[in-house]
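A common beginner's mistake is to predict each chain separately and then try to dock the pieces by hand. The better habit, illustrated here, is to supply every component at once so that their relative placement is modeled jointly.
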Amino acid sequence: MTRPQRSDAARNRAAVLAAADELFATAAAPARVSMDDVAAGAGVGKGTLFRAFGSRAGLIQALWALRTEPLRRAIESGPPPLGPGTDPSQRVAAILDAILVVKLDNRHLTLALEERSGSASLYEQPQYQLVHRLLSDLLRDVGRGKESELLAHLLLAAVRADLLDHLAGSRGSSRRQLRAGVAALVDLVLNGSSG
Amino acid sequence: MTRPQRSDAARNRAAVLAAADELFATAAAPARVSMDDVAAGAGVGKGTLFRAFGSRAGLIQALWALRTEPLRRAIESGPPPLGPGTDPSQRVAAILDAILVVKLDNRHLTLALEERSGSASLYEQPQYQLVHRLLSDLLRDVGRGKESELLAHLLLAAVRADLLDHLAGSRGSSRRQLRAGVAALVDLVLNGSSG
DNA sequence: TTCAGATACGGACTAATGGTCCGGTTATCT
DNA sequence: AGATAACCGGACCATTAGTCCGTATCTGAA
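With all components supplied together, the output reads:
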């Protein structure tokens, strides 16, 4: 039984999320946003911050969950091509493209999210596992039997934050090029067509 | 003109490399090998360590360079299928497979190597760029024109340390399965054949 | 409205760690 | 042997995630 949260706690939680969002969007690099910065930006003590989110990783994941809420809903229960009831091939392509776009729109946050903190890697994060499972299932439906799990990992590896950051940043790939490239890879994996 | 290194410096450098090698192989996680540990293990002061290698990343890269020396030579000037003069498709497959094997044989070191330290990502490391360029060129020879650079990144993303660690570690994939999976991916990218 | 106690606040404090500094030591060359 | 440049080592510094606990605040009941 979790009793309702106290109002000041809720207010502070919101303030922290807003401040962190702002800081990650602004900062030169996500690693340069310290928890002290976030606390100061939110006008809150550090203890409060850690009480609310547990750890740096917890804060980042909460923020990410907030940012990806619409996408998650669209995938879980929205209309095609993202939602259920879509042709599996098209759904895989749509989901990967949507993930790519979200990541490009939140570069620093995504980088922070995928930075391994302590011993926890990207692959242990519940969200990753959810998407991976979904893609695996879809790939299986498409006829890739035992390979589907590995292929799902490989598709997701193609949209990893640091790779995108490298391509978009220091190598100047446009969003259009990236989407086309990922689409081509998906096509290759799904249909085996050579482009 | 760099004058010859003093003998004690050379000795210490070797001791540090040996100690670091041992520690990374033994430790539970690469992040848990601190520079103090390495210095203590080598029976050397911290200043010496940093003088010799510049930074933690420098030490790790030096160690990696040592470990991959044979592979590098085989690729640069060895016999087929790794060396020059091989059919490009086969060479891509051979190189990726060799990289995979080296990474599996040095899991912790590879994890440490690919951990982003500060603002420097994997993609800025000279070794990555060398391999990437080589693969790009080979892919171009095989007929993948403008896509070759992106495809090379994607192939290399498939053998990233943390992914391999996840697959081999907490999910129990065997080396054989991993090699087969990567080989299948390469085949897909090269020939567009569907498995 | 008041009050009691559970809940949350906040910022000083801790621990861990990468990296720096410089007085003292040692190899090397003549 | 002696002069000198290179090197050593470990105390020291700065940064940062995370903890602790005395104090302030909210909330529900009387």
